[in-house]
Amino acid sequence: MLRLLIDQNFDQDILRGLAHRIPNLDVITAYDMGLSAATDPELLAWAADNGRIIVTHDRQTMPDHVADRIRSGEKVSGVVIVPQQMQIGQVIDDLEIIVMCSSEDEWENVVRHLPLWPPTSNSPEESPTRTVIPSSLSGRATNPNK
Question: For residue 36, what are the domain limits?
Answer without folding.
Answer: 3-138
